[in-house]
Amino acid sequence: MLAFARKLHRRILQEEGKYTDEGHERWPVCRVGLTSNTGMRDFNRSILEYYGHPGRFRGTAADFGYRALDSVLSAETELLIVDDLHFLKWRNKNGIEVSNHFKYIANEFPVTLLLIGVGLEKRGLFSEGEDYEDAILAQTGRRTTRLGMAPFTIDSEKGRADWRNTLLAIEERVVLADKHPGMIADELSDYLFARSTGHIGSLMTLINRGCQRAVRTGVERLDKKLLNQVKNDSASEQARGSCSRRSTPAGWSAGQEAGPRERAPHPGHPRPPAARGKHRQLA
Predict the structure, then answer these.
(1) pTM, full prediction
(2) DSSP secondary structure letters along 244-268
(3) Rounded Cα distance, 102 and 47, in Å
(4) Fewer Cβ within 10 Å of end Cβ, the chain: N or C?
């Protein structure tokens, strides 16, 4: 989301300039986060806080709403990102207020709303329901196009290619003195999939912590020996342990890692030979 927002922000500034025709700073993107206690007044105030509006400290929810609309219009904002939507308790008073406010924003603000959260369907964002409160929440669902964010998989050619392209993009951005081409995308492809189970958050956590350790220890490169000393998030470590118990043949040492059955082919290179037995164990 942040990468997309940054790219959009820079593209619009490059095309239309840093200032609007009226002389205001152009801010193409606005991002606000929610908490479980966020009400309509807090939400509007968060928008004003993002813009640094001088009237963000005092006023009613309606006052903050008008000022937020004025800020969006003045800065010619085109994208409004609402992050951590899963924190909102939809069934209480604040949840109903903010849901109604989303409808108001969709109708009155000349912006595209990008709502981000985990498990939104289970929390009732898209449900119709039978009572009045459910009908109110369904207004948000009716105006929302759902986009999923699934983990990487390696059970298809496209999935393997996507995984390799992601590792190549990460490798380009890693800054270590002893980095070399293929350090991540070739040498650590299977290992990183086994450690992250295909989830981008777990992958980036492992890479970031590995780079920090590489700098602190003076190794200045990433390899299995170094990454074996790095703990990842609890969810990935638990999934990794479960996967190892299901797929590790008898006689394996604890240090050996399971990985994908094949590595995605590099463009312009012949397809690598089929992976050996230990990789075939990971299904």
Answers:
(1) 0.64
(2) HHHHPPTT--TT-----SSPPPPTT
(3) 13
(4) C
